Amino acid sequence: MMIPPKTRMKPRPSVSSSNAVLAATAALALAVPAGSRAADTTAPAAPPADAPAAAPSPAEKPAPLPLHQIEGNGGIFSTLSAYIVNPPRNGEPIGRPSVGFSYVDIGHGQNLIAATLTESPWKRLELGFGWNRLDLGDLPLAIKEATTVSIRNQEVDLYNFNARLNVLKEGEFDTKWIPAVTAGVHYKVNNGIGDIDNDLGGALHGVGITHHDGVDATLYASKLLTFLPRPVLVEAGGRATEGVWNGLGGFTDHYSFLFEGNVVVFVTGSLALAAEYRQQPNDYTPIMAGGKPLVGKSGDWWTLDAAYVVNKHFTVAAGYGHFGGVLNHQANGVWGITTKYEF
């Protein structure tokens, strides 16, 4: 493999979203048998005249939906939702935080770990953070065998800083057809890809992976369909990105405009099944050695997921995924688990 003259990745300037969750909660409510939701029509007894005033009842906790997406946004696994995570409940000045953890076994010693945090200070605004670590598995050994070059890093870390604004609430303006619409900005920093590029004498830079940070922009619409036998949530969006494998492989100089989305079926009041699809860009030249990829071509992602609402605070989901080319292998038939806790 030809190694270009040593270069450094160019730094970028630092770049410094509710009725939505209530709609998802309504979906769960629709799945509960009607008899269990029957109202108590018995009038309460009047309190004594000298009884102290009753304290206001605490705000009702809705179901913990949507889930946490691996980059620290409300969503499924890799795709987003226009619904905001854990917004302020009625009577509360700000929302409460939510935390999550995900693990995906990609194979060949490679795995992805994600720790996520969201806070929604207002009903229309969601702030999120996601830390992703990709273990490179047998890639360092494959590079050494092909080039005799040893790379120092055995993993890369990606830090995601997210801000999403709910531009339209579902059913706003007293209409039934308007979906929830949310726009997002996502600043990403990769710690590790620059060192790998230096160890390879600028090989990544030479094939178009030129930066260690980048900014994504997203726009998503979500609509809950209640006229079907079971409630179905349809979510679709677009993303502008320079990222390779969401930014885990670094960033290029060219934006790609990609489609992503998901469909969720609420099977019972606690169980939901989801399918999602996310396009991936290929604005770089794959690096090959001996007819085998060291940095292969990206493939679109799709996953099948099952999510279970344990209680009003905790959800857990498991999924099967097809990621196409990741690093030096095909990552098809991978398994993962993700959890989220809302305070």
Structure, briefly:
With 343 residues, the protein is mostly beta strands. The protein has 4 helices and 16 strands.
Describe the structure.
This protein has a single domain (19-30, 62-342), classed as Porin (Beta Barrel), CATH 2.40.160. The protein is 10% helix and 46% strand. It is built from 4 helices and 16 strands. A 12-stranded antiparallel barrel has the order 3-4-5-6-7-8-9-10-11-14-15-16. The N and C termini lie far apart (52 Å).
Give the biggest beta sheet: 12 strands, antiparallel, barrel
Global outline? elongated
Distance between the termini: 52 Å
Which structural category fits the helices and strands? mainly beta
Strand order of the largest sheet: 3-4-5-6-7-8-9-10-11-14-15-16
Strand percent estimate = over 45%
User: How many domains comprise the coordinates?
Assistant: 1
Q: What is the CATH T-level topology?
A: Porin
Tell me the helix content. Answer: under 10%
- Calculate Rg over CA atoms: 23 Å
Order of helices and strands: HEEEEEHEEHHEEEEEEEEE
Q: How many beta-strand elements?
A: 16
- If classified by CATH, what would the architecture be? Beta Barrel
> Unreliable runs, pLDDT <50, ≥5 residues?
1-7, 14-56
CATH superfamily placement:
monomeric porin ompg
The number of helical segments is 4
CATH top level class name: Mainly Beta
Mean pLDDT score, rounded? 87
Salient structural properties:
4 helices; single chain; 343 residues; disordered N terminus; 10% helix; twelve-stranded antiparallel barrel; Porin
Question: Strands, helices and their partners?
Answer:
Blueprint: H1 19-31, E1 67-69, E2 73-75, E3 98-107, E4 110-122, E5 125-136, H2 139-147, E6 155-168, E7 180-191, H3 193-199, H4 203-206, E8 213-225, E9 232-243, E10 251-266, E11 271-278, E12 287-289, E13 292-295, E14 301-309, E15 314-326, E16 329-342
Antiparallel strand pairs: 1-2, 3-4, 3-16, 4-5, 5-6, 6-7, 7-8, 8-9, 9-10, 10-11, 11-14, 12-13, 14-15, 15-16
